[in-house]
Specification:
The chain contains eleven helices and 13 strands. By secondary structure, the chain is an alpha/beta fold. The protein has two domains: 247 residues, Alpha-Beta Barrel (TIM Barrel); 50 residues, Alpha-Beta Plaits (2-Layer Sandwich). The strands form three sheets. It has a nine-stranded mixed sheet with strand order 7-1-2-8-9-10-11-12-13. Strands 3-6 form a two-stranded antiparallel ribbon. It has a two-stranded antiparallel sheet with strand order 4-5. It is globular, with a radius of gyration of 21 Å.
Length: 325
């Protein structure tokens, strides 16, 4: 069986590198999505990011029932198309490489830092001309502090701005040098209530609040990167009066008066099916009215709200001279 504990710091699994992005940091950016996440958010749109290792997925609608995958598997882990014994699978991915219809796919590929830089390099001129750069996302990039830290340093040597998007669930003491080398941290917040966070995200939010408080203090003191919180708006879950007022008061107490709201879209359902995961809970669609109500409530508490890609980055001091502590 392929272990989910594989985390080679030299070659972590990346499930996507997206180019010419405009919604995850200033300017034109490339997004590097790492596999592996400590949370299991009920509404997650990228369930392929959960495990740290590359994994096989099956798209039934593309299958032509040729049974090539069955015949070629050296471990005899596939008894029929779409029926794979994960205990027998050793991750050779011969089924993926030989599938003629593209029904068998691999989520994730192991990269070296040289591999990533080679793919990103053609966009460097666009990044520099627009004040853009590279955003590390996932999954959770803090699972690979040595790799991302090294990659960020090499990008800085090329004059490229680096941003890290995090769920906030990490040991800030262990990852201190790596995190403080970033030019910007996009910090995702979800449920303010600890019990609700455990229910919908699978973990306590105590460490998340602690890390956000610490980063805000370091940013204000000029010893850490600017921090910009982002909140996914999940109808009846994260857009409630209690949740929004709880976060508004918390953000204000640590000196942050801005927030990006990310409206919920159900984009992960098909991926769960491909990965043979249980279906996600059903959440009602986000309406313009609910979004407007959320914005009004937060603004009443002194929090300025922004849509992804429309942030006023000047609200955070991007020119602060930082001295990593």
């Amino acid at each position: 069986m392929v272990s989910d504990n594989f985390k080679d710091i030299r070659k972590p699994a990346i499930f996507s590198i997206q180019h010419f992005c405009l919604h995850d940091g200033p300017g034109v950016r490339s997004m590097v999505f790492f596999k592996g996440c400590p949370l299991r958010c009920s509404w997650c749109q990228n369930p392929e990011s959960w495990r740290t290792s590359p994994e096989v997925a099956f798209k039934a609608h593309l299958c032509i029932d040729c049974k090539t995958c069955v015949d070629i598997c050296p471990q005899q882990a596939i008894s029929a198309p779409g029926n794979r014994d994960v205990q027998k699978c050793d991750g050779c991915f011969l089924c993926v490489e030989n599938c003629p219809s593209g029904a068998m796919v691999c989520f994730g590929k192991n990269y070296t830092s040289d591999d990533v830089l080679e793919e990103l390099h053609p966009e460097f001129p666009y990044m520099k001309n627009t004040g853009g750069g590279v955003t590390f996302s996932g999954g959770e990039p803090t699972l690979f502090p040595e790799f991302v830290g090294q990659l960020s340093t090499r990008l800085h040597e090329q004059g490229i701005h680096t941003t890290l998007e995090t769920c906030g669930y990490f040991d800030s003491d262990t990852d201190k040098a790596f995190l403080f080398d970033m030019d910007l941290v996009l910090f995702d917040i979800k449920l303010f209530d600890e019990a609700a966070h455990r229910r919908f995200c699978g973990k306590s939010n105590n460490e998340i609040k602690k890390n956000l408080t610490r980063f805000s203090a370091c940013s204000s003191a000029g010893s850490g990167p600017p921090v910009w919180p982002r909140l996914p708006l999940i109808p009846t879950v994260t857009d409630t009066y209690e949740n929004l007022t709880g976060w508004a008061q918390f953000l204000d107490s640590i000196g942050i008066q801005y927030l990006t709201l990310v409206p919920y879209h159900n984009l992960g359902a098909s991926k769960r099916e491909w990965l043979n995961l249980p279906p996600a809970p059903e959440f009602i669609a986000m309406t313009d009215e609910r979004l407007e109500d959320a914005v009004k409530l937060l603004e009443q508490h002194g929090i300025s709200c922004f849509a992804p890609g429309e942030e006023d980055w000047a609200r955070a001091d991007f020119n602060t001279k930082r001295n990593p502590g």
